[in-house]
Amino acid sequence: MRKLKLIWDFRGPAAEKTAQHHEIHLNEYIQSQPLNVDLVGHQIMNEMHAIAFMVIEEADKITFRDALKPHRGEWVEN
């Protein structure tokens, strides 16, 4: 099964802190739902851009997209 990385982009001087905070909310969401999530995290792209992300299975993409409204997604290479 293919994996999809859902991404939320944050920009500006507070991007890193905002991405870290969003990661907390993503973890809270998956703990409250019986969902299969491979990985949740955040990553600093540069000093003015950070992302929060979640890696899910392709079959769950509509459920997560509709509930969490990610900014974009990328297929994950196995």
Regions with little confidence, pLDDT below 50 for 5+ residues: none
Q: What is the overall shape?
A: globular
Total helix count? 2
Question: Percent range for helical residues?
Answer: 25-40%
Report the order of strands and helices: EHEEHE
N-end to C-end Cα span: 10 Å
Question: What structural category characterises the helix and strand content?
Answer: alpha+beta
Biggest sheet statistics: 4 strands, antiparallel
Query: Strand order within the widest sheet?
Result: 2-3-1-4
Task: Tell me what you see in this structure.
The protein has one domain (3-76): Alpha-Beta Plaits. The chain starts with a strand and ends with a strand. A hairpin with a 2-residue loop joins strand 2 and strand 3 (49-57). The protein is built from two helices and four strands; from the N terminus they run E-H-E-E-H-E. A four-stranded antiparallel sheet has the order 2-3-1-4. It has helices spanning 15-32, 61-68; strands at residues 3-11, 37-46, 49-57, 72-76. It has 78 residues and is an alpha+beta fold.
